[in-house]
Design a protein that fits this description.
Elements: E1 8-13, E2 18-25, H1 29-37, H2 39-45, E3 52-58, E4 65-71, E5 77-88, E6 92-100, E7 114-121, E8 126-133, H3 137-145, H4 148-163
Helix pairs in contact: 1-2
């Protein structure tokens, strides 16, 4: 199945301070789940090209966290941290995301949304639903101004390519 035939929805709900993204991948849940939860796979798709992702710490468990940098072609590093709150193996996970420094110290001036990521099997495909919840509508606007839609869409295309590389 070609990726341009797969489902992709992106919506901004400013009234409820949410961004919702759903994407279909031509791969089984186990393979898609691994790509979201194993650092060696995440690093291959998370950053939109020409940027690259590099993991410093990955502890995928409730109470654990992922500390990573998106590295630009000029060596610029933008650090991020995801603190995992709940995990239901192969079904969903929830985490608090934030921008931070290379040591994981959170930048309180930038939005820190909660990500709810769900995985549902289809007929030879997997549907991934992402709901990103913010404290204020201004945080949603800030994320969008920072190019989130374009960057995340490009990253999901990277994931599609990774899953179809076999």
């Amino acid at each position: 199945m070609k990726s341009n035939l797969l489902l992709m929805n992106f919506s901004v709900d400013k009234e409820n301070n949410k961004i919702k993204v759903s994407r279909e991948f031509a791969a089984p849940v186990s393979k898609v789940w691994a790509a979201w939860t194993e650092s060696q796979l995440l690093d291959q798709w998370w950053a939109p090209k020409p940027w690259q992702s590099k993991t410093k710490v990955m502890d995928f468990r409730e109470g654990g966290y992922w500390l990573y940098a998106m590295v630009g072609p000029d060596g610029t590093e933008i650090w991020g941290r995801s603190d995992y709150k709940s995990i239901l193996h192969l079904k969903k996970f929830t985490g608090q995301d934030a921008f931070c420094d290379e040591n994981g110290k959170i930048d309180l001036k930038l939005p820190s949304p909660t990500w709810n990521v769900e995985f549902k099997p289809g007929s030879g495909t997997t549907f991934v639903g992402v709901e990103i919840s913010f404290n204020e509508s201004s945080d949603v606007e800030k994320y969008m101004e920072m190019g989130f839609k374009e960057g995340f869409t490009a990253a999901l295309e990277n994931l599609d390519n990774l899953l179809n590389a076999d």
